[in-house]
Specification:
- By secondary structure, the protein is an alpha+beta fold.
- It is 53% helix and 7% strand.
- It has a four-stranded antiparallel beta sheet. A two-stranded antiparallel ribbon has the order 1-2.
- A hairpin with a 2-residue loop joins β3 and β4.
- α1 packs parallel to α12, α7 packs parallel to α9 and α8 packs antiparallel against α9.
- The longest helix has 15 residues.
- The chain is globular.
Length: 335
């Protein structure tokens, strides 16, 4: 086993698979080339906004792109990738599911769906079907095998996980990510010394692999980290209790005294001691109500997803943008 470790490290000490593996960089130029002019323009707008840290603007542009080309899998994949960056794996899985349905013969679409569902701990049976489809489409793809291996860890099917990671390592020997997953499977199969040896080699080759796997729900010693509860396909992938905070660059967020959060521009931090008489949505001020600082005869304030909506065209435009940005989250409230 140690000889194998040295061989893998010798092949490459710099290869590091991102936490989403298959889900990184899959909007291929060929796919975008088929996207209509209007949708492509919105995708360009979304990309520029996200690059500047303006995620609400980016998500609104993505919603416009989807409206312009609802049958194009590329527009769903593009938004899903942004949700991945925002650690919103449940929302990402919903978009990847549509992309996979529209293009069932695409190994990337199936692999993305598999891994995102596993990260969200949602519909693990559907995730397995997507994983199997990805491996069937590309049996020599280490990414497809790795995605299924991770799902098998989530399902506590450790023997199957060991087989998939072993096959992935044979195809891509220098992947610390696969070595770590393989080590986890061995630990849970009772081969603790071998498993920890694999993980030790993985950490030598990649300083970030431990934090990557903690995000995925597994610790350095093989421990399972509590995260989202498992939900089935008949349950929604999101709830109003979920914290879904999308901030643009320069915006700040403060949770108020009653636990409902408010967003404000830079330089104007909200007063955390205030309370709110209106509704909360995804943990954010929403609807009409009053802040505790308001005088009794003051008119009700209107908030949408934590932002105050002023009267007039500017307020209406902001409300519309927020509605588009949170469109996927709203849809995810139903199965």
């Amino acid at each position: 086993m140690n000889g194998i470790h040295h061989q893998r490290r010798g092949l490459s000490a710099s290869i590091r698979i991102g936490v989403l593996g298959l889900a990184i960089g899959l909007t291929q130029p060929a796919a975008l080339a088929q996207t209509g002019t209007a949708a492509k323009s919105f995708l360009d707008e979304a990309s520029a906004a996200a690059a500047g840290g303006n995620y609400v603007d980016a998500l609104a542009a993505h919603a416009d792109a989807i409206a312009a080309a609802p049958d194009d899998p590329a527009v769903y994949t593009a938004r899903a990738q942004l949700f991945d960056r925002l650690d919103q794996y449940g929302l990402a899985s919903a978009d990847y599911r549509i992309a996979a349905k529209l293009n069932s013969g695409d190994v990337s679409a199936q692999g993305n769906l598999c891994r995102s569902l596993a990260l969200a701990n949602h519909d693990l049976d559907g995730a397995l079907a997507a994983c199997n489809a990805a491996v069937r489409l590309a049996p020599q793809s280490p990414d497809a095998l790795s995605a299924r291996g991770y799902l098998q860890l989530r399902r506590a099917a450790f023997a199957e996980a060991e087989k998939d990671y072993s096959a992935a390592i044979n195809l891509s020997p220098a992947s610390p990510d696969n070595m770590f997953g393989f080590g986890l499977a061995l630990i849970h199969l009772g081969r603790v010394k071998d498993g920890r040896g694999e993980i030790a080699s993985a950490t030598l080759d990649s300083s970030g692999v431990v934090s990557d796997w903690e995000v995925r729900g597994f610790g350095l010693q093989g421990e399972i980290i509590a995260g989202r509860p498992v939900t089935t396909a008949s349950q929604p992938v999101a709830s109003l209790a979920d914290h879904k905070l999308f901030l643009n660059k320069g915006e700040t967020y403060v949770k108020l005294a009653n636990g409902c959060g408010r967003v404000a521009p830079a330089g104007r931090p909200p007063d955390a001691s205030l309370s709110w008489s209106g509704a909360c949505r995804f943990g954010l001020l929403h609807g009409e109500g009053k802040l505790s600082s308001s005088s009794p005869d003051a008119p009700a304030a209107r908030f949408s997803f934590g932002r105050e909506i002023a009267a007039g065209e500017a307020g209406a435009a902001l409300a519309q943008k927020l509605s588009l940005a949170y469109q996927a989250a709203e849809k995810a409230l139903t199965p």
